[in-house]
Fold this sequence. Notes:
Elements: E1 8-13, H1 25-33, E2 39-44, H2 50-57, E3 64-69, H3 71-81, E4 87-92, H4 98-102, H5 109-117, E5 120-129, E6 132-134, E7 137-141, H6 142-151, H7 158-169, E8 175-181, E9 184-190, E10 192-196, E11 218-223, H8 231-240, E12 249-254, E13 256-261, E14 266-268, E15 271-273, E16 279-292
Parallel strand pairs: 1-2, 1-3, 3-4, 4-16
Antiparallel strand pairs: 5-6, 5-16, 7-10, 7-14, 8-9, 8-13, 10-11, 11-12, 13-16, 14-15
Amino acid sequence: MAEKSNYRYLFIINPVAGIGGKKHFPEMIMRVFGEMDVIVETCFTTGRGDASRLVRENWERFDVFVAVGGDGTVNEVISAVAGTQKVFSLIPAGSGNALGRELGLSMWPARALKEMVASHLRIIDTGKVNGRRFVNVCGVGFDAHIAERFAKTKLRGPFPYIAIVIRDFMAYQPHGYRITIDGKMFRRKAFAVTVANTSQFGNNAFIAPRAKIDDGLLDICILKPFPVGVAPDLALRLFNGQLDHSKYCEYHQGKEILIEGETLSCQVDGEPVINNHPLQLSVDGKSLNILVPGNIRTFAGPFFAG
């Protein structure tokens, strides 16, 4: 692995992630890195799968691959980098920015760039589901349903997402699942089952408050069916990091998880995946080299930053 001072950076920019244009990003990046003795290039994605392809095509030319976009772009770049000696970094520029918030990055891209200059190397875990990599969460049930609905709308940002949640909440029906965690099997009817490497969905919605990104474990939150009147309390707990204290949340940790059931379409780092097969999930400990800011903050705001 190259010394940090000699890193060669490729910034992979998703121009349609989040809200606001990204055409000015290359100029902003060069303005921050221009006086440094490092090689920096930028490129734009044009569609799904482009970020991973750009990493593969430029593998030998760069040491650090920087995702500039949302959780989907982050997932694509990480999927190509994890398990190797290459280094990942990110500039949060999406709707939820789960990993960026988890790591304490600024939600303002210009500030996040300056933090990258003073960053240090950290090694974190990733997860795998049926061979596919994830860094934040993988879930079945209501969150997978919402991910599929959100993917079909052209509107980005937190407000359209919240509108879909409110609109679909009343009509959604819980499903039955068989959940095996490190060999121990549970049968549960659940509103949602989320397997988490980080603590949140994004936008500081803490679905797995106890999750640590480098503990070699995945956290499992089984959200049981609940009365409609309890929804405001659960929403409050979700955002104040207390969901695991609700009697409607069953919480586990483990390394190997199997989820079986009739409805197994899932979301992987917020991206919907149509699926009819059992979900086999595992943690891949210390599998990703990542640049993080030196002064980690728990709540990286502002809440509604793009």
